[in-house]
Fold this protein.
Amino acid sequence: GAVVSQHPSWVICKSGTSVKIECRSLDFQATTMFWYRQFPKQSLMLMATSNEGSKATYEQGVEKDKFLINHASLTLSTLTVTSAHPEDSSFYICSAGGRGTDTQYFGPGTRLTVL
Amino acid sequence: ILNVEQSPQSLHVQEGDSTNFTCSFPSSNFYALHWYRWETAKSPEALFVMTLNGDEKKKGRISATLNTKEGYSYLYIKGSQPEDSATYLCALESNTGNQFYFGTGTSLTVIP
């Protein structure tokens, strides 16, 4: 299957700083990538759909100015958590892939802890 | 947003036992249902994609069925092995774009 990498695997930062997470499709081109967030004991929640060369589409309740998404190439999407606060501490995971009988391929995720 | 429920939340079985768990959804208004296996510290691994009522898929000892009329999908594991220990996720793919909406997963532990 296709491989998606994510970097970093985990990050600890101080409140008020910004953190960038990278998501790369290693062996295929992804015009669309997705960003999810998972809080403890909860399901993976879709945050936004990232489209190559255009603006991301955010789910209701997700602040686009806080979670900046850039999808500048067919193999790379980045999520920047700006001015992170402790409540942003979560597990962030990206995916990329096709539609229907194809599926989405996931990265291994990034654990963010904001102190 | 598509609502997805999974049960049970967690499950412990003995090696060699067969087991199954459920993904339920109130509406059949989705494009496809996906099952994933997610081992700790790894990427979720795609198991099955199903689109039609009555679909059945099989991969080795694992199989899945889809009943869109009654709003559920079952995942079966025959003769569970310790390496089957993982969280199994169910997701619905929307009709309007290929967004996925996940359940909370079923955590399976197979005891040797």
